[in-house]
Amino acid sequence: MKRWILPWFLALAALVAVGLPLKVRLDTPRLGQPVVIAEGHPAWVECRASLPWVPARWVKQALKTQWGLDVEGQGLRLLRTERHGNRYRFQITAQAPGPGVHRTAFDGIWVQGPWPSHFQVVQAGDFHWPGQEDTLAPFIDEMLVLRPAAVLFSGDMAYDPDPRWFEMLFRQFHRLEAAGIPVISCPGNHERKGWSQYLRTFGPHTFHRVDLGPLAILSLDSAHGRDQFTPSQFQWLKAQLDDLGGRTPILQMHHPTFDPGAYKQGNGDGSGGSLETYRAAFVKLCETRRVPIILSGHWHQDVVFDSQGRLRDDTPDFPGPKFVTTTALGDADLRQVVRWERGAFGYRILEFEGGRMVRYTHDRAGLPKPAPIASTPLGTHAPGQASVKAKEVAP
Amino acid sequence: MTALWLLLYVAWLVRNLAMLTVDGRSWATFLMVLPLLLLPVSAWLRDKRPGLFHSVLTPVAGILALASALVLGRLWMLDYWDTRQVAASALLALLGLSLQWVMMAWRGKIGGLRLWLWIAFWEYVGGWHPALTLLGAGLGAFLAGLQWLPAQAPAQRSRHTVGVWPMMLLLGLVLPKPAWDHLLEPAWAQAFSAFAFGVALASIRRMRGLGERLSTNSLLGAMALLFVIYFPLHTGWWALALGLIGGWLWQRLPRPLPAPKLTAAFLLGLLLSFLLHANSGRPVVKHFVWPGGGSERAGL
Pairing between strand A322-325 and A293-296? Predict the structure, then answer.
């Protein structure tokens, strides 16, 4: 037994040698995963330290010097500290200056006052490739005109592991946040190519919840392995849907829930990937927990299914959850996976009234009113003249 | 030392490469897998030139293993491994080769309960950051290389035997399930640690006696059952049970442990496990890879 004293002593010494000087990594909030403080609903800041069990004040100091976050300053008030190994959590609160959602002095921490009855949330995904025409910047310009309560990005934001691409994403997302519009994102399949860079930029929580106004926005990671959930993520989702506190749940993930099935157009343009593991249980969960809408991308085409997996190109208004896929924001490879029109680059506007979703499609010429399926073409709300022409292709 | 190599290095490598993805055509990837490719060469050298492994080369290998693990630890602590970086891959290869050398030098002489507790500790701290698991591998190699790691007391041989291929292939298939489930969340590390703790527990005299009453086939069957019966909310207990079963089977492996064969079977199991779980939505597969993966009422 005594002969093991040296190995264990050296083990501790090695841990200290790796952990010093003390570093911290902020895990929540991060880009795409803000925290929102509401009256009576404090939020948690979460970080990891390079050494476990160190005093919390050291970690707070390191957060301040390394990340610029002062959990006891910048208008924030610290309520509670939790520690487990090298994970530290700080519960914070703050006072809202007025109605709506407001930035605090730290990017990613928002404070929410009385919420308007009518508001919009925008969803987009599948950005342009490096070297293609930039559609992200014009989209951000449009959002600054439209001023939704939040913008949701549902994956395939980065096709390139180059850190400069992620810096560009940071800059563009920051334009939205600087204008008071929180950004909430989830990863797609293409982010896996530069996974370490993605994790550095967006943090390690690839699925998360953001409570905003009357909404609980649940962002899921459908793209690890091959288009699937894992048991622990599925259990997490179930736990969140069982603890909504009266909020309306909105789900976003990269992959569509259903495969094109009988509605497939030709060979589906080679983009038939959909949720596979836990699909049946997921659909059942959305039905029983009354999830109004499940947002996705990946197919580069507008599609809406009902919970039976039927393509709803007849009406936007049908009972039960709406499984919605939104066209690409900028990936030039617009596809025709199902029989609905190929469409244009665009995004989707969700309108809410008194906490209920009242609209999720965009009326256009040539479609019945209200229009089924259709998203909003890029350029529709552009400031002045549209900077990018909506790319309409006949069905 | 073979267990340390398998758990803290081989399983670590497969888990992280699966998680962070690799470019099969890059030099960095080639360097990462170099220690695995050179294992048969090390084994051949060990047989043909055993004197080399009792020379100054072994402590030097131990020092190199610790140095590379420390550099990697400081480089990666709280960060994410960019698998395209050649320098980091070269350091990882150096760690792997040094650890392999020490393992060959001390084949079968270092093991037992306390080594499994050592592995359990380093798997656990891998939940603080994965680089720390490698630190445990490097430090283990350093201590063994300098003969500072106590040699194993001769264990009582089991009256049962088990084939290397069925046992290690199955272990490779079942063990990483928590890693494929929890991905970046540290619960995988706690499960791996519980597994190693279970193996340590199985080597206690009373538990050995209990294990001796069970046939090899029933233990292999129980291990296979744990592939299908997986509890995402109780991975610690699941892994502890796997550790007990794995520990009883480990005692039945031929001695000295045939490191290349063990590694090949374990590696194949790990890769097969990754392939199955990465395709867990496919027809047929979806009904047994994850509990309720193909059903409408999974945990509702």
Answer: parallel
Task: Summarize pLDDT for B184-227 with one digit per residue, the tens.
Answer: 888 999 999 999 999 999 999 899 999 999 999 999 999 999 99
Structural contact between residues B77 and B129, judged by C-beta atoms closer than 8 angstroms: yes
HSE value, Cβ hemisphere, 13 Å, CA-based, for A87: 16
Listing DSSP states for A106-143 in one string gives STTEEEE-SPPSEEEEEEE---PPTTS---HHHHHHHH
* Average model confidence (pLDDT) across chain A: 91
Asked if A117 is an interface residue toward chain B (Cβ–Cβ < 8 A), one would say: no
Place of tokens 């006696």: B209
Is the bond preceding residue B35 a cis peptide, omega within 30 degrees?
no
Report chain A residues whose CB lies below 8 A from the CB of B289: 277
Reference A345, options A380, A381, A378; nearest CA is A378
Contact B278 A226 (CB under 8 A): yes
- What pLDDT, on the 0 to 100 scale, is given for residue A395? 29
Q: What one-letter code names the amino acid at A270?
A: G
Q: What is the DSSP string of A64-101?
A: HHHH---TTSTT-EEEEEEEETTEEEEEEE----SSSE
**Cβ proximity of A51 and A14 under 8 Å:** no
Read off the pLDDT of each residue in B41-70 and give the average, rounded to a whole number: 94
Q: How far A300 CA sits from the closest chain B CA (Å)? A: 22
Complex ipTM value: 0.93
Answer yes or no: are the C-beta atoms of B146 and B40 closer than 8 Å: no
Chain A residues with CB under 8 Å of B290 CB are 230-231, 277-278
CA B246 to chain CA centroid, nearest Å:
12
What are the tokens at A290? 């009354």
CB-neighbour burial class of residue A5 (10 A; exposed 0-12, middle 13-18, buried 19+): exposed
How many CB atoms are closer than 10 A to CB B59? 17
- pLDDT class for A390, splitting at 50, 70, 90? very low
Q: List, for residues B259-269, the tens digit of each pLDDT value.
A: 999 999 999 99
- What percentage of residues in chain A have a pLDDT greater than 90? 76
Q: What is the pLDDT of residue A224?
A: 62
Domain ranges in chain B? 2-287
Q: Spell out the domains of chain A, with CATH numbers in brackets.
A: 23-96 (no CATH), 115-377 (3.60.21.10)
Name the region of B56 (left: φ>0; alpha: ψ -120 to 50; beta: rest). Answer: alpha
Distance in angstroms (rounded) separating the CA atoms of residues B233 and B298: 13
Task: Give every CB contact of residue B118 below 8 A, 6+ residues apart in sequence.
Answer: A7, A11, B4, B136, B140
Tokens encoding A321 = 């959850």
Buried b (16+ CB within 10 A) or exposed e, B24-46: eeeebbebbbbbbebbeebbeeb
* Cβ <8 Å between A228 and B299: no
Measured between CA atoms, how close is A24 to chain B, in angstroms?
A: 7
Nearest chain B residue to A280, by CA: B296
Asked whether residue B10 carries a pLDDT value surpassing 50, the answer given is yes
Query: In the prediction, which pLDDT does A393 show?
Result: 35
Q: Cα A333 to chain center, whole Å?
A: 23
* CA-closest candidate to residue A186, choices A144, A214, A154, A222: A154
Phi, psi at residue B125, to the nearest 5°? -70, -15
User: If you write DSSP's letter for every residue of A299-332 in order, what string do you get?
Assistant: SSS-EEE-TTS-B--S-S--SS-EEEE---SS-S
Task: Name chain B contacts of A204, Cβ cutoff 8 Å.
Answer: 184
